[in-house]
Amino acid sequence: MKKFLIIIAAILALAACGTPQPKAIQLQTPARPAGQQDVVGLAVAPIDTVRVGFIGLGMRGPGAVERFCYIPGTKIVALCDAEMDRAERAQEILRRNGRPDAALYGGSLDVWKELCERDDINLVYIATDWKHHVPMALYAMEQGKHVAIEVPAATNLDEIWALINMAESKQLHCMMLENCCYDFFEMASLSMAQQGVFGEIIHGEGSYCHNLDPFWDAYWHSWRLDFNHENRGDVYPTHGLGPVCQAMNIHRGDRFTTLVAMDTDPFNGPKHVAARTGKDCSDFKNGDLTCTLIRTEKGKTILIEHDVLTPRPYSRMYQLVGTDGYAGKYPVEQYCLRTEGAEEVDYQQLDGEKVYMYDELAALQAQYRNPILTPELEALAKQVGGHGGMDFIMDYRLVYCLRNGLPLDMDVYDLAEWCCLGEISRISMDNGCVPVAVPDFTRGAWQKMDKFSYALAE
């Protein structure tokens, strides 16, 4: 019998050896150059007047110009676009709001460099197509300017490390303009999470599900459809990922360690290309839907989805799952909290928690108001607008922190972590959906803080 058991054990061991488990693909983390310091919690000298130059005045840029007209302590110095007529239309926004005329730049693809070289600008605000984000941001920082970059700020790891190294070497702010971190439900839920309403947050979900059929032709020279044509992976992860990462304290006491990604085949993408070119498209790379699952150092998980090619209803998913509660925004806003156990259990009643919706939800949120959202700021944000007001709060906070010499709400490492899914999800997919180890973009500095927090002036 003993001999038989030894043989069985040997067979099982051989079987285990014959089916090796996949190991995570390791990605190189370049050493921090000598003399360079991290920018976790970076604060610079207060800037009394934030003098801004805008690059990119097509879809999002004009809205930013309009919003800055309502922010005190700002001067709009320069407006730039490859198409001069767009810069001229943005000038009319300034005039309509009683702001002085700005210098105009346009008519070529590299005229933006002249804006960056001005000595009367301290912030460059970039709202161009994705492929120009990083060259513009790097050049602006080389000229000593802080930069704010539309989403996604970077599309691959080389770009991400270049931005990190430039921000660290120059000790400048490099912020990605992730407006969804300032939507009202997300801000309220973050405040509740930080005050322990949901217990410990152990899982989050986010997405960008938005049918872009009506919008593809609105992008300058069809750049966005072209990018999806040429690139596999979650190319637009930050709207869903950003608010979840803040609630889960990513690089402020926890960090990504591993991700696994899958995608569907591209079913609808090739049809869009064929409809516009009249030619068959067999090399479209972006799947109609991508799913990425992330695990953190502290054993927590995040699920992120991307879908811009199906008629699925708009959703950023946004869910926080805690040990004692839940927050979910789509398709209906609700909170669920534990209830005290009843003396008798009704097995026909499936709900075991207290659900807050509508008026009860609003009352609960009022108890845990976000510290940066004063009644005055909320009213002004809803008046000025920008995706319901969240864009204005984002811009207002950027200026507030610069004027008061405070750390920004989002730093270059947030940019890196939220944008890295673009390439790392593709690496996982291209290798049979195996795990990929996520680099530590802070290079060891992620434990310098123990949680996300807003900086406030005294």
Structural descriptors:
6-stranded parallel β-sheet; 9-stranded mixed β-sheet; Dihydrodipicolinate Reductase, domain 2; 458 residues; 15 helices; alpha/beta; disordered N terminus; globular; Rossmann fold
CATH architecture of the largest domain: 2-Layer Sandwich
Helix content: 25-40%
CATH first level of the largest domain: Alpha Beta
Q: What is the general shape?
A: globular
- Name the CATH superfamily assignment of the largest domain: Dihydrodipicolinate Reductase, domain 2
- Taken as a percent bin, the fraction of beta residues is 15-25%
Topology:
Elements: H1 2-18, E1 50-55, H2 61-68, E2 74-81, H3 84-96, E3 103-106, H4 112-116, E4 123-126, H5 133-142, E5 146-149, H6 157-170, E6 174-176, H7 184-194, E7 201-209, H8 223-230, H9 238-247, E8 256-263, H10 269-277, E9 290-296, E10 301-307, E11 319-322, E12 325-328, E13 334-338, E14 353-356, H11 358-367, H12 375-384, H13 390-404, H14 412-419, H15 421-430, E15 436-437
Parallel strand pairs: 1-2, 1-4, 2-3, 4-5, 5-6, 7-10
Antiparallel strand pairs: 7-11, 8-9, 8-15, 9-10, 11-12, 12-13, 13-14
Helix pairs in contact: 5-6, 6-14, 8-10, 12-13
